[in-house]
Amino acid sequence: MKAGPPTLRRAIVRPPGPSYAEGLTTAGLGPPDLERALAQHAAYCDALERLGLALIRLDPDPFHPDSTFVEDAAVLTPRGAVLTLPGAPSRRGEIAGIRPAIEPFFPAPREIAAPGTLDGGDVCDAGDRVFVGVSSRTNAEGARQLAAILGGWGIPVTGVDIRGAAALLHLKSGLASLGPGLLAVDSTLADHPAFRAYDLVRVSEVERYAANCVRVNEAVLVAEGFPEFAAALAARGLAVQPIAMSEFEKMDGGLSCLSLRF
Ligand code: CIR
C-alpha cells in the first residue's frame, strides 16, 4: 500500500476584513457579501479543525483586502519556510503581516527578493517534488529563486509556465495534489509534460473552479457544486468534503488560498 501524504497538524488562517470587496478580481461575479464570506470562512475553519488541524487565527487586516488569501504570502515545507514577494503591488504589505505567524514555527524564513515575484498560489507540493508556476503573478526570476532555495533543501522543483492557460490566475487554480502520485488537473494543463508520470483526475472545463481542492489528512476539501469532480474523487476512494465558496470565488480565491497548512 502506498503511504499517504504527511500528516498536517496546523493551519494559519485570516478571515476577510471590512475592505474585502476592494480586493483584486477578474471573476465578474459581482461584489462579495462580507457576512456570507465570514460564514463561509468559519465553516472552512471548522472543516480544518474537524480534520485534526490546530488553527492559528490571525486578525482581519483592513489595509490589505486580499489578505484572507494567506497562502500567497508564504511557502511552508518540512525543511523551512519562504516568505514570498507577491506579484500584485497591492498585496506586498501582506508579508509583514504573515511573518510573525510563521517565525515561531519556522525560525529564519528565507525570502524572495526583487526583481523576483512569487505568489504561494503558484507553488504546488506534490510530495515527491514541488511544481512552481510562472504566471501573471510569479515571474521567472521568482520561480528561479524558489527553486534554488528548495533545491538547497533537497526538494526537486519543476517549473510550469501557465501564462498560456487562459483564466488560471495561479498554478493551483488548476492543479492540486491529492496524495502520492495523484493530481487533480484543469483540462488545459492535463497534457503538460511535467505531469506525465502522475495519475491524473481531470477537471472538465465547466467544473474548472473545482480544480483548486485541498487534501487535508484523510479528506479532500472540494468547492460545493461540482458533482462530476466530486464523484471522480469518490470513485478513487477519497473522502470528499464539500465547502461553500461562492464569496471567495467572486474574488478569484479558492480553497487552498484560505490557509497555510503544515
Ligand atoms: C488576488 O487576485 O490576488 C486575490 N483576489 C485572489 C488570490 C487567490 N489566491 C490563490 O489563488 N492562491
Write a concise keyword list for the protein shown above.
23% strand, three-stranded mixed sheet, alpha/beta, binds citrulline, 15 strands, 262 residues, 5 helices
Question: Can you characterise this structure?
Answer:
- By secondary structure, this protein is α/β, with parallel strands linked by helices.
- The protein has 5 helices and 15 strands.
- The strands form 5 sheets. Strands 2-1-15 form a 3-stranded mixed beta sheet, covered by helices on one side. A 3-stranded mixed beta sheet has the order 3-4-5, covered by helices on one side. Strands 6-7-8 form a 3-stranded mixed beta sheet, with helices on one face.
- β4 (80-83), α2 and β5 form a beta-alpha-beta unit.
- The relative contact order is 0.18.
- The mean pLDDT is 96.
- Bound molecules: citrulline.
- Citrulline is lined by residues 23-25, 66, 69, 71-72, 88, 91, 121, 169-170, 172-173, 251-254, 257.
